[in-house]
Amino acid sequence: MRRVLLSAALVLLTTAAAAQQPPTGVARVEAWLKAVLAHEPGTLDDAAEQVAEWPTSSVRKLWIDVNGLVLLMRNPRIGRFDIRQPGQRTVQQVRYTASELRRMRALACAAGGGLHEPGCEGVNALKELDADLRRLALLAEEARRQGDENYILRRGALLHTDIGMRTTGAADPVDPGNSLGPQRLRMTINDGLGDNLRSSAPHWDVARMLLDQVRPAGVEKPAPGRDEMVRRWYRATAAWMELREDYETLHVDRAQQIFPDDPDILFLSGCLHETYAASFIQAPVQSMVVPSGVVFDLKSDRGELHQAEGLLRRVVALKPDFGEGRLHLGRVLLLLGKPADAASELTRALELMSDELLRYYGEMFLGAAREALGEFDLARAWYGRAAGLQPAAQSPHLALSALARRRGDRAAALQEIRRVFELSARDDGHDDPWLNYHVSHARDADSLYDELIRPFVTSSER
Amino acid sequence: MRSRFLVGALAAASLGVIAGAQTQSPSFSTKIEAIRVDVLVTDRGQPVRGLGPADFEILDNGVLQQVDLVSFEQIPLNVVLALDMSESVAGERLDHLRAAGHALLAGLKKDDQAALVTFRSDVTLDADLSGNPRVVRDALDRAEPAGETALVDGAYAGMAVGESDVGRALLIVFSDGLDTSSWLLPDSVLETARRSDVVAYAVSVGRVKTEFLRDLTSFTGGRLFEVEKTANLQAIFLSVLEEFRQRYLVSYTPRGVAKDGWHRLTVRVKRGGIVKARPGYLAGS
According to the model, what pLDDT value does residue A191 have? Predict the structure, then answer.
């Protein structure tokens, strides 16, 4: 089953690769290591641009070779590479020629900071490395001395994160028959219509794969779930994807697998499924004609809402005072036709929230819940409060108009719709936070990422 | 649908007076209640003309009603254009839409009024109901596509404008996309449609599912046009206007039925023919 990336923002395809041919085979791994070394996290520097220009097929093969590199970092003596692609049950055996394997071992010794380890001394790795790779080996070794054996994994992940965030990477026509390395399909959604289904370079897969191999000091097997940087990476990048409407279910699913009880990650996952229930996601996916073998990882709107409800219930169970979690749960319950439960959650949310934006949402949703319960005076009061909080917003007046019309009060309905029109005619704009509700939960994504990369940018080792 | 206007003064001229008064003081609180139903009667595809009250049979929740009035081409029209101005409309579609709007406005009669509502991420009243088509035409020429599609909010706003003045309200909704940003839920607006006198026609362009527009037009007795391209938009708009002019406005005061709730309507013509009218109306809150 292939998963499809959804993007609700206009995707600008990068221009064709530079005239220079991208490296292949083990040379590509070496070029990649040097790009990781040279890359300044948080930027799209020359190193990142160079890798971003590699065609999709190159990045898919890189994913395979870096898998092998990481296996060699952990054990330079291995000669068999069984690699499992994300979402697939079967493993793929990758073979290298003797000379390729020798070179891969040398690169792995440098990347792992273990040039002087017995396994690396045996292959005489030091002699095979140029100045850049020796510098990389020194930095990785220094990190090991300080208790972190994951130097290249973390920095490699950040390189591909910056490429994923700051470019669209390469994009090629969909090729369902090509199973070499993970294939990611990106659909562009504009104004509720899906088009331009393309195969995109799996930079996020490379980043996830690298962080999957992170292991704490003194532990034999990878344990990313015990690593704070990995947790913060998933939180920041999942939020970034949701804020930019660059949706990838696989990303949040993997975050949940690694951190099953993390309320922040559960919250992002719950909000993602809440968004997936919206018509602006559902309709394009339903109407898009896709090649044979391609399926969308999307349930019906109610299916998505039920999933969101389950996730958000776990969030508020783990973090009972998390008002924003209750806000989203309340809205999901409202959409599921449970207005009494929704009103209860939203009332509690409003008790917990002081942020004006969140209170606006809460008051609008509570108004809608009261309206659904037939409590029209309460509904009008909550819509009225929301209108007071956001005087330039149209939604509260649309709600008040429809409510008045429902009660048979045409004069009030007309008065409120006139207010809607007055707001649209104002010169100072008529921003309505409702229009950004579906990304509001991820509004701190940029600061989360800045916080994540700070140790890597300011570290004296660079 | 509950229409609160003076049944005692049923002539078209009297309705015009009420319309004028409403701009200062809405007169919806009258105690006299009547139901009016826009009805299209055709025979072998051609409109049937010359029918009077005695030719119609109306059942309200199965109870035969006394038809008070049948009007045909006597009451001026309030034509509200609710047009999608999201960014996907830019280009040829916008050219076609403007041309269709111009043609429709040119087809209005002396006492008819028109208004323009556009919807993007928000809803705008570009031209309020006016007897001067030029005002609406100029507004249409100024409207520029941008942003997303608040189709449901836009349709509601169009209905509200249509109800803002007494007369026969024709709402024409055009959209080439799917709702992506409305606050109002489709069910809420469809409930309003069930209470409204406004007859909604809609044109949906492209491959999107148009359940909302199908329901909106069905509940109000209008019609949905689903087209692939906008090349024939002008002809569609003109056919909508022509069809609407061929409709009868049938009025009765409900008797022998519960006041609130859903009222199923059955409209028949005794001499035969195909009847198109809304399936019912919703009364009370």
Answer: 72
Residue A307 near residue A299, CB atoms below 8 Å: yes
Q: Given this model, what pLDDT does residue A77 score?
A: 85
Q: What is the DSSP string of A151-175?
A: HHHHHHHHHHHHHHHH----EE---
Answer whether A237's CB lies under 8 Å from A211's CB: no
- Determine the distance from the C-alpha atom of residue A99 to the mean position of all C-alpha atoms in its chain, rounded to a whole number: 38
CB within 8 Å: B183 and A399: yes
Domain that holds residue A138: 4-215
In a domain, A19, yes or no: yes
> Percent of chain A scored above 90 by pLDDT?
67
Give how far Cα B185 sits from Cα of A177, A265, A332, Å: 42, 29, 14
Please check whether residue A324 lies inside any domain of the structure.
no
Determine the residue among B18, B118, B178 to mutate to test chain A binding: the one whose Cβ has the most chain A Cβ atoms within 10 Å. Answer: B178
Q: Does B125 contact A407 at a Cβ distance shorter than 8 Å?
A: no
CA-based angle A122:A125:A129, to the nearest 5? Answer: 170
pLDDT tens for A342-399 read 999 999 999 999 999 999 999 999 999 999 999 999 999 999 999 999 999 999 999 9
Chain A residues with CB under 8 Å of B121 CB are 432, 435
**Chain B interface, Cβ < 8 Å to A:** 2, 4, 26, 28-29, 86-88, 121-125, 148-149, 153, 156-157, 160-161, 163-164, 177-181, 183-184, 188-189, 191-192, 195, 206-209, 284-285
Distance CA A458, CA A12 (A): 32
Q: Is the CB of residue B170 less than 8 Å from the CB of residue B77?
A: yes
Nearest residue of chain A to residue B160 (CA atoms): A414
Domain ranges of chain B: 12-74+248-283, 77-244
Task: Give the CA distances from residue A333 to residues A338, A344, B210, in Å, rounded to whole numbers and listed in that order.
Answer: 5, 10, 25
Q: Who wins on pLDDT, B9 or B57?
A: B57
Q: Give the residue on B whose Cα is nearest the Cα of A411.
A: B26
Q: Which three-class secondary structure state does DSSP give residue B251?
A: strand
| Domains of chain A: total | 1
**Any residues with CB less than 8 A from the CB of A154 and at least 6 apart, and which?**
A148, A210, A211, A214, A229, A456
Judging contacts by C-beta atoms under 8 Å, the chain B residues touching residue A407 are 285
A17 reaches B (C-beta below 8 A): no
- Fold of the CATH domain B77-244: Rossmann fold (3.40.50)
Best mutation target, A188, A195, A279, A301, to test chain B (most B CBs within 10 A): A279
Taking an 8 Å cut-off on Cβ atoms, the answer to whether A398 and B156 are in contact is yes
A265 assigned to some structural domain: no
Strand ranges (E), chain B: 35-43, 46-47, 56-60, 63-65, 67-72, 77-84, 113-119, 123-130, 168-175, 199-205, 223-227, 248-252, 261-269, 274-276, 280-283
Per-residue model confidence as pLDDT tens digits over B258-267: 888 889 999 9
Residues 6 or more apart in contact with residue B155 via CB below 8 angstroms: B82, B171, B173, B189, B200, B212, B213, B216
pLDDT (0 to 100) of residue A272? 97
| C-alpha distance from A353 to closest chain B C-alpha (Å) | 22
Angle, vertex CA A62, rays to CA A59 and CA A65, nearest 5: 165
As a whole number of angstroms, the longest Cα–Cα distance in chain B is: 55
Q: Is the pLDDT confidence value at A305 over 80?
A: yes
CB within 8 Å: A192 and B177: yes
- A394/B123 Cβ within 8 A: yes
Per the structure block, which two tokens stand in for B173?
Answer: 């909704």
For B88, the closest of A193, A398, A430 (CB atoms) is: A193
Tell me whether residue A68 is in a domain.
yes
Do the chains contact at B148 and A411, CB–CB below 8 Å?
no
Q: Residues B77, B108: contact at Cβ < 8 Å?
A: yes
